[in-house]
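3.2 Worked example (two chains)
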Amino acid sequence: MNKFFLFPFVIFLILIKQGQSQDDVNFFDYWKFYSDIENSMYKSSCALAFQQLDDRIAAMEQLHSKSDYLNRQKLVKEKLLHMMGPLPEKTPLNARVTDIIKKDDYRIEKVIYESLPGYYVTAALFLPKKRKGKVPAIIYASGHSANGFRSETYQHIIINLVKKGFVVLAFDPIGQGERLQYYNEKEGKSRFGPTIEHSYPGAQCYISGYSPTKYFVWDGMRSVDYLLSRKEVDPNRIGMTGRSGGGTQTAYIAAIDDRILAAAPECFITSMEYVLKSIGPQDAEQNLFHMLSEGVDHADLIEVRAPKPTLMITTTRDFFSIQGARETFREAKGFYKALGGEEFMNMVEDDSIHASTKKNREAMYAFFQKYLDNPGSSEDIEVDVLKEEELYSTNTGQLATSFKGETIFSLNEKLVRDQVAKLKTDRASEDLDDHIVSVRNSAKNLSGFKYQENFGKAVFSGRYVKSNYVLEKYLIPGDGDYMLPAALFIPVGKNKSKEIVILLDEKGMEHAANKDSLVHSILKQSSSVLLFDVRGIGSLGPGYLKGDAYIDNTSYNQWFAGIMTNKSIVGMRVEDIVRIIHFIKTEVGDNETISAISTGACGSELLHAAVFNDNIQKVCLINPFVSFADIALSHEYTPAFIPSTVAGAIEKYDLSDLMAAICPRKLMIINPLKSDGSPKGKDKEWHYFKFSDIVYTQKSVKENFKCLVVDDNLRDDAVIRWLK
């Protein structure tokens, strides 16, 4: 053969070999229209949120008479209390003064009191030296400073207020100042910053079914109780203010506690539309459970107080949108007018960033001087601030080392254990079939999953013919402005199986196709394999929004959006999986048997999908976490698991209940993980699988439920045996 002919032939063989070693499952370099595809999950949440906000506006437009507005107030108050979760019973504060600092014209009492038994609050009470009778008092809530109210910025405001004749109580929010929850004694600091100190345990509260806002609000309400226990304080002249996170606390606490006469939240109030379009949902305590689906926005936090005096303190370049603040102010002003108190609703703005400005501080001083009846100069004066350690209420500067009291985690842990006990009782007392029906309904409602009606037209996107298989690419319409990429691997040969295995890889279909052996191991057994990505995974994620609670490459903030809209990430992804199933049944072959495999945390999504869609005949979970309760009960857990959890699930169902719900279909779990991401090993009791094992046994199909711990190099063989 001519050497000039051989050379291109050799090149051709090399290219074929290269093509077999790498499978092209890229879609969106070609489909330019979908260039924003990685934001599909967050934008789906936003689209739903905007509709819910529009519904709220429509409801507000129906308010006409004074009684309409009063009924709206009552409704909102009830919703706020419900969304925060039931507030605790009041218990003794057991307040103690640990030290006193005397200044020329004021003194500071360093205080500790118990918001709940063993749940300590560190605070400082600033008392003006010259007083005539009972005087007005202001609670100061600090923003997300690691040292709480001891920051120079907050001390400047507090000392200005006390020099103007106000008693001021400044307390540490949980996770800040002396109340760090994840304090490392050797390093002398928390392993997290303040926002993560809130969101890491806050996520566990959400899994249990309520917002951690409850604890922040309760601390504020008990702080009012402490103020009212002081003989120096006039109980009818209580105010509250704070900036940033302190603005959040001020808004929520003043909305709930009627004893707060005047409130001045600073650098927080805007509107949720503009929050979602800019910085995104913030750390845990700022997001109420189902807030948007219940039709509540920032304006409601003010309107529920009307006509009590309120001052919105804003800046034009704040990351809390000034446009949202202006729109909220206009709405609230109208609400106050309807209740005959238009003059009590005010707003000040300055041209600055997210910061305290002289103009805004002086407006705040004047506001409290007027409405708490304490006249005087509103000039912002220079003051001497104290060193941080001078204001410690504990001996060590941390409750963690001085008192070792309760934390958000420990408080929630007790609740979760009660919920787990209740779930176990339900499993034992209910008829199994009735329990399974209840589980299916609860999983659907709590995840926000909805059965789809419109599926659209799949788009064929190319074919590659290999030596032993064919690769076809499709775009499958999602339920919004996005497409689901799917790559169908079809084995070549006479013995081709009628089985299609769908595979959802937590790292995405690109990883499954080219960095994992499982796809080609299955193809060798003559079964077709369909790879796909769902919202937030692979080519459809993670999106631009990281947020202020971004932990180990996981955006809690995107998960918070789903909690506010009552449409979880799990629910969204399950709807995507159902679309994939519909594509197979309508366009690939209605006679195909569908088996499903997941790798990693998205085993939760696959279990939900199998419960909602019985076209999935077999389920295999590789390296899954195994329980929502396991995460909520672990002081240390893996953040990557959070997006695959369902808020509020624990009392109604856990993953073991979903496993039971797909009985008698085949289910295999390979190398399950503990909540911290480490291998679970061969747990003697496999207690998180106990209920599902009982159900499979009672249904006489015990052999269809398997849990395996295998070496990674034996994983593919285990899957192949399961498929057979």
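3.2.1 Second chain
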Amino acid sequence: MQLSNFIRWFACAVLATPTLFAGEGKWTPQQVLQLDPLMLRKQGLELPVSRLWDPKRGSGLLAATVNIGGCSGGFVSSAGLILTNHHCLFGVVQEHSRPDRDLITNGFVARALEEELPGKTTRVTVPRKFTDVTAEVTAAAPAGASDLERSKVIDAKQKSLVAACESVAGSRCRVAVFDGGLQYVLIESLELSDVRLVYAPPRAIGEFGGEVDNWMWPRHTGDFAMARAYKDGKPYAPEFYFPIARNGVKPGDFVMVLGYPGRTVRSLTASEMAYQRDFYYALREQLYGEWIRALEDSTKDNASASITVAATLKSLSNVYKNAQGQLAGLARGRIIEKQQAHEQAVSAWAATRPAFSKGLEAKRDLDARASARRETATRDFLLQAISNGSLALKHATQIVRLAAEREKADADRETDYMEREIPRLRLRMDRDQKSLFPPADQAMFAAWIARALKLGAGERIEAVDRVFGSGEALKTLTYLYQSTKVTNLAERLQMFDESLAQLRARKDPLLGFAFLLEPELRAFQAADKTHDGAVARLRPEWRRAVIAHAGKPVASDANSTLRVSFAHVKGYMPRDGVTYLPQTTLAGMLEKHTGIEPFELPRAILEAAKSADAAKVPLNFLADADTTGGNSGSPTVNGRGEMVGLNFDRVWENVANDFGYNPDVARNISVDIRFLLWLLKDVEKADNLVRELQPAAR
């Protein structure tokens, strides 16, 4: 089936489907316009679909949803005020915290514009145009190209499209890939680099329940915070923003979750899913668990050090528990087995239709490649993990790679080291100093080395063996940390601008290790690009068969692009004989209060609660929206486009939702906007923010 015919068929299939929703689907703005308006109205949408998105203008209410540092958020006032999650702005809170001004513990309220705190590396992007560039990208790969060549020419074409798009001042562009290459979309956004912290609750509110309650229900967490976007030194005036709902939600109400979900893997074959389970999530659980213990042990009873590693520890803990949930959910829901059964049904159907013979061949090739990748999977995971572990190791490898990439023409560089990325890379290296506590960082590095030294004969990392394989790895590592200048901010920023020759002349031992590691990182990344080229050739063929067999719309895997999930407020049964109601209240939070972390409430909350009917102050609620990582901070809005809450989590039984949607347990957790209003008014006495967040009149 030709691509143009497939797209027309897909659009017709969307319009023809009479029963569309069970909560499943992360729909693009373009797909929303193809959905049956009557069905959307029956679901509970009161706005005309055209209010959500106007393709001619490239805008609509959905454009009030912003991407903020890998999280989502939403404009809630005409003066650039953004609501997102507490954990999404935690890095900014940490950036301005110190032992004598502990904003992490005590929270922060700006009672005037001049009190707002800048986030050094925080960026907001506002969507404004989507252009299908599939034909241009796929035509770039010549017939007979190898998979590595295919990957390179596709990458070059994407860079060319992005460069042309970013010739417009203030634009931030990317080419998003859907279904491994079935569709390519050029996304143009407005980037706002001046983002300031406005409000963050005390940690005991924003993280109430800590890791004990993380991914759990019932939940009583005030995971929200506020920032303000500025443009040309003045508060940014968005064309669209979400009014605050006056009446909140109740069970059965229709809601939409709007945001930038990061990554799901439902388009993978069962063999590829098994690879992810065995070598991505299993190894992540092990290594991240070691890193968490390293941070906790090395900062124990050290208040300053605890502040320094707080953001890193928070991020690692969240990913660690997510990995545990993915593994448990895959087993509990037999998701891979169900995927195998589904593939057998698709394959049997496609076998009788010659138009999809290439899809069957592609599926067999994808499975074979998944099997072959297992041979170096642990080594590949450790090389990939460098970007998430020790800051010293990450910075050393980045500095060496940057110097090497600078010797190339800009268009020939890796995307992360092109001139457009240099300013933000420098800012991150600067900002990372706030998170660098050398003893903790060294302990994380040591955990990584210990795993690398245990690799099998076919997976050895030669640089690790040469430097740390003498039997005195910890002694060698201590010498590196004592001798290197990479951990010194001023020296590191100077290295940032140096050539390969200048870096070598320093004879810095950590840079020396990075130089030894560089060829192996290059080889790993070349293999990764070769795999990407194969996926771009194979995945679209298999997905055409899968979608045609479904006979109804199939939303693409999440890829950090703007999506909408339609849902209803509802509870669920996590196991036999247990029913969870869909809403919690301040009363439940008070019941959980023990006076001991992570269930220790600030005195101000306890005092304010005395004069409130706690059972009538809504706190969190469930819906059956299809969400994943990246949806943190997603505006949860009602059928009128009014904000009723902020998505911040999924339930434990739904963590493996990334692999497949199960309507029985697919529940996302949002913090109720009414709890935020109560907190601002009765606890914080932040009248300026209460006025700015005036609930919508009905």
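3.3 Remarks
The radius of gyration is 25 Å.
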